[in-house]
Amino acid sequence: MSVTQKFDGLREEVRDNFGEDIVALRREIHEEPELGFETEKTAEKVLAALDGLPLEIQTGVAQNGVVATLVGEEDGPTVALRADMDALPIHEETDLPFASKEDGKMHACGHDGHTSMLVGAARTLSQNHLRERLSGTVKFVFQPAEEGGGGGRVMVEEGVADEVSSIFALHLWPGLPFGTVGTKAGPIMAAADAFEMTVKGTGGHGAMPHLAADPVVIAAQIVMGLQTLVSREVSPVEPAVLTVGEIAAGFAFNIIPETARLSGTVRTLDANLRERMPERIEELAQGVARGMRGDAELDYRFSYPVTQNDADASRLALGVSEDLLGEENTVELAQPSMGGEDFSFFLEKVPGAFIWLGVGDVSGLHTAQFAFDEEILPQGSALLAALALESLSR
Fold first, then answer.
1. Burial class of residue 55, CB neighbours in 10 A (0-12, 13-18, 19+)
2. In the CATH scheme, what is the code of domain 191-304?
3. Every domain range in the chain assigned CATH 3.40.630.10
4. What's the pLDDT tens digit per position in 82-112?
5. According to CATH, what is the number of the domain 5-188+306-391?
6. 55: nearest Cα among 157, 106, 131
7. CA distance 157 to 202
8. Is the pTM of this model over 0.90?
């Protein structure tokens, strides 16, 4: 299927007019990654790139977030486009000429790309000939603290999603063919929750374990036992993940310590299962620990809810992709990812869609080697602009 007249020339217009600037901005952001809510320099770069455009600018949202509003020529609803700005605590190993200058910090999840693509969309839609086509308002939302900080929740609490009729976000996606757009109705990303557990025992000499209650051994048994919550208590056709990612105990090779500590994550797609997991984790851990003369205390934190796409918004996104990029570059996803995403907080408030934009066979997200072909950036900007145009034409 060829590209239709609806968005004819939009990709080329973005690439030719703004492509170099979008790439340059991405590189500037990549060189100076910032974590969590501390995205002050990134926000300054965004503001500089938006300077001179016919936008109403709000700063200091969720500490260092930016919301830029473009009012169309005619009255109508409001569509929001969101990008995340924060980086990860990872030491970069890409050898890029614009690699991170901040030791132990890296844009390893594509947020530098998301931010620059959204700036490109703002610059594109601010042109008079496209602004005239907007029957309503576009909010460009630049969000801090997606990576575990819950910046999306804070933005919703501060009213960013109020009076918004629909919302969309893009995420660069390794493994999806380069330039391919993928999304689906319903769950597209899992609820991502976290727990910490303290395993209590009785310390002693490493040569006399019978006089102690070894929390290291107890913790090991708990880790193995927790796997049965998924393998034997969750339906095999219902996705769930329970991973213990950290375990720590002891301070000397020949001393049995008093305590051990576990931490991990739980990923679910079903709300009822999500609610049941803390109780069952605690019951199992305490049962194992008490059976071995110890005890266990659980601290469970509900973090990001399921990223739930609206059916109509998903259909709109797939249709826009087909019109802009062609049917051969558009795919309705068969399965969600068990990764988490705090765009979910926006989707609890406003109907919308979270969309994957393929970057091909590259190193995975959250790895020190993650990098992508920057030719994808103008394409993403064009897609965001087209989503806004289509949303406000209905």
1. buried
2. 3.30.70.360
3. 5-188+306-391
4. 999 999 999 999 999 999 999 999 999 999 9
5. 3.40.630.10
6. 131
7. 45
8. yes
